[in-house]
Design a protein that fits this description.
The protein is an alpha/beta fold. The protein has helices at 22-31, 82-88, 92-98, 105-118, 179-183, 195-204, 215-226, 259-267, 270-279, 281-284, 289-301, 405-408, 418-430; strands at 15-18, 40-44, 122-124, 126-134, 139-147, 153-161, 163-166, 170-172, 189-191, 208-211, 235-238, 311-314, 317-325, 329-336, 341-347, 350-352, 356-358, 397-400. The strands form five sheets. A five-stranded parallel β-sheet has the order 3-2-1-7-18, with helices on one face. A five-stranded parallel β-sheet has the order 9-16-10-11-12. Strands 4-5-6 form a three-stranded antiparallel β-sheet, with no helix packed on it. Helix 7 links the parallel strand 10 (208-211) and strand 11 (235-238).
């Protein structure tokens, strides 16, 4: 059995990563290519890389082009690119002739697993328990537990680092009113993150209700619809959103997922950012238009011989409370907000496509709490370079990945910004520029600080701040 990967206080790692999802996998891959090398160690409590296994439904694709892999948008020549993965598997020509811009999720998962299996300095089956700052030695102390296949602790260790990066990802969110139902026996009430593990039970259920109208909810509804008999579908799809709406996918709309917009958003005031994010839901919480079209086509196909499919699709509905009826049924208490009407829905299975929340790291970072700075809502303050704002006595940095929506905007979880963010972190960490970053990435000028070129040669545009602000 191998020893825990450790580093002494006098020879600490340059960087220790906590969590190995796509974001930290991207950072590890680009760190591997830094000239001169970096001493790194990345820890993940799961035994192997796995990306949303419960939603790898056959035929589902990424919502971003294949160029949004782990490295390409920062380093197209990296050996860890998706195209190099295809070449190693002798699949470049089939991919070329497939003319596929959006790859299947299962293929993306396999690509990331290939990187995870071959990249050095990745330690799966290792749980990080605590991070502290040692002011005497000016390093971070990281307590690590190596776990066995069953998750039981096998060995304890401690390593040291000059810098930390948090990439622990998100976890399924279940609304408070429905939480007790997910742990009780009987009719299945599961989060969409576990869909495939319960798919057979859901297909066998007499009536199924899907709650939530984002991409996951749409994909689950479509998969259930395709595999239930015509005229006896018995599916209910409800959402608190006002419509089953498509994702904003226009070319200029996509510029909200550029470094230019990230810079603009970070420079806004905290109250402005907090007001803006909920209004941008259709940029990242809508449904891919191809999925919406496929749902309508499947519903329409079932009307060709007369009659309508036994399905109900109702937006604008909130689940107020819920309870179990014996062990075979679930009763949902619904409210239609616009109508001001309430009703009850009895169903035999529920899939909660209710999204994800940032995974809590409070206990793990308790030792850093005296040094942390928070905003008015108690959230960590994060600077432009993805670092937690800490007391000046802490000379090391704690970077965050995919946990900075409140400071960096809706592009935070987007795969298309992942390689750029990793490169920006490495540039800051090294104090050099191993990955030159683009100076401009959008045609849109999101604020007045980037004035348009004057239409009259020799003249310039002057901006005068408004008294009292906007």
């Amino acid at each position: 059995m191998s020893a825990l990967p450790t580093a002494a206080p006098d020879q600490p790692h340059d960087l220790v990563g906590i969590g190995i999802g796509p974001s930290n996998l991207s950072l590890a891959a680009l760190a591997h290519g830094v000239p001169g090398g970096l001493a790194t160690a990345f820890f993940e409590q799961h035994p192997r890389f796995s990306w949303h296994p419960g939603l790898l439904i056959e035929g589902t694709t990424l919502q971003v082009p294949f160029l949004a892999d782990l490295v390409t948008l920062a380093d197209p020549a990296s050996p860890w690119s998706f195209l190099n993965y295809l070449r190693g598997r002798d699949r470049l020509f089939p991919f070329y002739f497939a003319q596929t811009f959006h790859v299947q999720r299962a293929e993306y998962d396999a690509y990331c697993r290939w990187v995870g299996d071959h990249l050095p300095d990745l330690h799966f089956g290792h749980r990080v328990d605590a991070v502290r700052w040692n002011p005497e030695r000016q390093v971070f102390e990281v307590d690590v537990t190596r776990t066995g296949p069953d998750g039981a602790a096998e060995a304890l260790g401690r390593t040291h680092a000059r810098n930390i990066v948090l990439g622990v990802g998100t976890e399924p969110h279940v609304p408070e009113a429905l939480r007790p139902l997910t742990t009780a026996s009987g009719a299945p009430v599961i989060h969409s993150a576990d869909y495939l593990a319960h798919r057979d039970r859901l297909l066998a259920a007499g009536h199924v209700t899907v709650v939530g109208s984002g991409q996951s909810g749409a994909e689950v509804f479509l998969d259930l619809l395709r595999h239930r008999p015509a005229g006896a579908e018995r599916l209910h799809w409800i959402s608190r959103s006002d419509a089953f709406a498509p994702m904003e996918y226009s070319r200029l709309g996509l510029e909200h997922f550029t470094p230019d917009y990230t810079d603009y958003f970070h420079a806004l005031t905290e109250p402005t950012r907090d007001r803006l994010i909920p209004r941008q839901w259709q940029l990242h919480k809508g449904i891919d238009v191809r999925t919406i079209d496929a749902i309508h086509q499947e519903l329409y196909r079932r009307t060709l011989h007369g009659g309508w499919p036994d399905t109900v699709l109702t937006p604008g509905v909130t689940v107020r409370t819920a309870g179990r009826l014996a062990t075979t049924r679930v009763e949902l208490h619904l409210e239609h907000v616009q109508q001001g009407a309430r009703t009850r829905l009895t169903t035999e299975a529920v899939v909660l496509a209710t999204g994800y929340r940032n995974r809590s790291v409070g206990a793990m970072l308790a030792g850093l709490e005296p040094y942390q700075r928070h905003d008015s809502a108690g959230r960590p303050r994060i600077d432009r370079d993805f670092r937690l704002l800490l007391d000046r006595s802490v000379t090391g940095s704690v970077y965050v990945q995919n946990a900075e929506t409140h400071t960096h905007g809706v592009g935070t979880p987007d795969l298309g910004l992942m390689a750029w963010r990793s490169a920006a972190i490495l540039n800051t960490l090294t104090g050099k520029e191993p990955y030159p970053l683009p100076r401009r990435t959008a045609f849109t000028s999101f604020g007045l600080d980037r004035a348009p070129a004057s239409a009259i040669p020799g003249q310039s545009v002057q901006l005068t701040p408004l008294a009292g602000g906007f």
